[in-house]
């Protein structure tokens, strides 16, 4: 115990050497967190932690003026003569007196509206002043949980890394990063180099607190990190907010600061509540103190998200720049109630950075060598915000636990519990793990692959798979065998597979498989196994049509260059037609009222084969191009994040050859262009365009023809930009050429939000159009209009579309329902 106390005191003392440190309180002695502390006439500094403690690094002794600033309290400029380090300076702040000026009281127009209009009018001018800069960035993420459930769906939840006390309360996540960041406004570019990163209780120390995602800019029309909430100073803010001037006060430099209250026109719209502070005459943000509910961010598990920002005046560029930010949050999900805070400090701004040509590339995040291996001495020296006693203790405990939990003895004991076999294991599945040697052996339970169709009847699979992780860089291999059995056709169909991946950078992967299986006639698999089972058993709608194939296949894929993905496969198969073998269903119909046949083109054909059995080889080679793809370079991992300013293009060539009948051989080219565009306050726009052409029109097998994804379900779970809502399965196919296009725009609140009374429902208008062109068929079109975000309060899970179709003059219409969790 004494040793631990000594280490704790040593840890704290190492923080304060060569620095000014102290505690910030109000007049009642209560600690003040998130107080900005910096040297006067600079934008370099720190903030106080949750206990009100701060540490400010200074480069010189002697006369210094230190500024203490926080919303709601008077800014304090403290002149001190520092003779030696460490220098202790405790501060007491006085609450700010906010009063309405007589001029504002006598103004006929709402003065808050006038101020907001001035801010909007000056957005471009103000942000242009720091259109290019580099800076230091520090982030800290902290997540706690209270009264954590011991079990979840019957499974032990564990101790969350060792951070819980006897009441199952404590820190479950703690991380820090120190980065160098660079920013360019036009065209928008960002670059971050992480100098140091650590996560409590983890070896790799990779924190995912990215500076670009954390840089919440209310000068933008919408806030992406908060699910595109409308900024109170967006160009169309008056469609979403009312404003009230609560009062004014003067900052340390004599600038008049206006406190503006945000009043949402509709409480559950995509808006904030709270206050923003605006500098008079400069019409720039001085501070932000806002909150959003789960209903407003459209994430049901969220109770609240709070954002605070502090800005400081830079004499160098005559502008107000962001120096500190916190995001507080609390969730409620399935009995778990985590809460936490992410804190950020910006310092050492350079508004005339070096050449931008070499700074900005598609690699927007990098890690300095050994960034995740910095020792305590390094962190104590550079950490701008001191740790609280609770955080220090969490690091110490979890660092000690980490060593123990990497040991063979501990991992074997954990595996002993995990590897217990129970009476449900044959049904639900079972995995035997060896965590120390990093391999596992799994058994597939009876319900893993349970299904029903009139060909096989009830069917399920049993199998084993082996997984071996060979290093932390993404190298692994896996192998397995599975046997599917149909209780009606009494057929066993065994398959086996082997796959291997070499790394998490270019992700080269090879897969080898073979055996006997069933496959849908439409290779796009528009009908899920679960949907088909439910519809068959409850309504006798057996939409899925299948055939049998004995096959051997090898495939390879890799990202050969940033944004260029290569894929290829070669398969040789024997394909056989199948017939229905059962008429069983839960539906109360006559036994003489059968399912439709297994022939996708003739539902009444129960006797003749739907195609002639044949052998065939199929070779595929393709590439996907994500233009100007941005990516993050973590240690041992490349994470691609795309680029929504450009579409992605996929091209593929398929050659069918060595068929039993040469007429079945074919050559096919296909292409696909798609993009999702964030239109800010005006919603989201998406499109998906496909096309294909055979080099020669031949009488090929039906499963090799180009087919589109139809839909005959009322409750839809598939991707709405990849299928047609009212088109029957297997209705459109071709051995010639075709093209299809899907376009959709979700207006969010841009349209319905402006209609009185209706806007209180907070529904989102969605419009779409789809078309299909085939060389040997009439054009098919669909138009849809729908309502998204339907539900109650923050639970917005339903979307309803009215769809109208037209094909060769034959019109149809119907409703489609889509469910989503978030």
Q: Could you characterize what this model shows?
A:
The protein has a 19-stranded mixed beta sheet that branches. It is about 10% helix and about 45% strand. The longest helix has 17 residues, at about 390-405. It is built from eleven helices and 46 strands. The chain has about 800 residues and is mostly beta strands. Residues about 1-15 have low confidence and may be disordered. The two termini are about 50 Å apart.
Which shape, going by the Cα principal axes? globular
Quaternary form: single chain
Q: Taking all residues together, what is the mean pLDDT?
A: 89
Rg over CA atoms = 32 Å
The major β-sheet equals:
19 strands, mixed
* Strand composition percent: over 45%
How many β strands by DSSP? 46
Structural class: mainly beta
- Span of the ends, CA to CA: 48 Å
Residues in helix, %: 10-25%
The stretches of 5 or more residues where confidence is low (pLDDT under 50) are 1-17
- Count of DSSP H/I helices: 11
